[in-house]
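Per-record layout

source: Coccomyxa subellipsoidea
name: ornithine decarboxylase
length: 367
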Amino acid sequence: FYVIDLGLLARLHAHFVAAMPRVTPFYAVKCMPDRAMMSTLAALGTGFDCASPAEIDAVLSLGVPPERIIYAHPVKSPAQIRHAAARRVAMTTADSSGEMEKLAHWHPTAKVLLRIRADDASALCCLGTKYGAEVADAPGILAAAAALGVDIVGVSFHVGSASRDPKAFEVAIRLARGVFDVGASLGLHNMRILDIGGGLTAQVTGIWDVPGVVNAALDAHFPPGCGYDIIAEPGRYFAEAVGTLLCAVNGKRERQTPTGRSADYWLSDGLYGSFNGILYDHMVPTPVALPINNIPHHNEIPKGATTASLFGPTCDGADVICRDVSLPNLDVGDFVAFPKLGAYSWAGACNFNGFEAIGVHFFYVTT
């Protein structure tokens, strides 16, 4: 089960708007589509970055008006575009002339941001290899959109998930400024929205260097009073630290090794569940033992600690959470907690092998 700290979520929101007062956050729903989290953020005035019709419907069901949604998937099927149009979700992204043609046909009232490529090469997950128009191609795409009558309202970019180089935002904002200037030369005078994407995280130390870089770049290229609206798409920033996953110990095996005693533990969740990020999101779980009858103080590892491996519940031999970690002796029925596991965890779970990983329980606290 998960423990979600809604109080911390509210504090993260307050930190965001204080650090970058000109930037309106649009929560990336894909990161952790928990209804209570989304309701909390909606009450705080955030917008929402949705990437599918299901995410759009989930946000609208909270009473959020469609104007506070950006359909931020640059490539959509005709059916998905029609769904957004039917729900009156107008703001969306595109990165090619082909996508502009689809939008002109299936959603003629769409308000489109051209997504450009602006990668942080050090980001944990690079997105530019799949999405984002090369800046050199932007004039041709904008000209095609203008000819089609598409309402281009701005520019978006995403430097990469869990960005590590704050200067990537400075470069990206400068590139976006150039694309806005191209749009103006083509007569696209509705381009008044800059979407600086995601890449922020509350865990990576460099996060608090980002606001200073962003604010300075905005002041240089989009100064206050210039008439531009600035939005962002933080997901990991809001979700990562607020979620702690607790897994039950379902099985145990002890072994004697040349270096001492070791233990293997089978947990109630694994690689096909909330730990799927090990495969695609560079997740590094940090287990904390919670013995039911002997909870250690301050997470201290008591004497006699063992080297342990933690396995998921499925019959797949690759279902391994971590190996060679130091943990106190645990028994069946004890728990292992994994803090900072709110981002890109449960959102990607599946019920492989018949083990329930999607329908986990959520408990909420306010600290």
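summary: The longest helix spans residues 167-185. The chain is about 25% helix and 25% strand.
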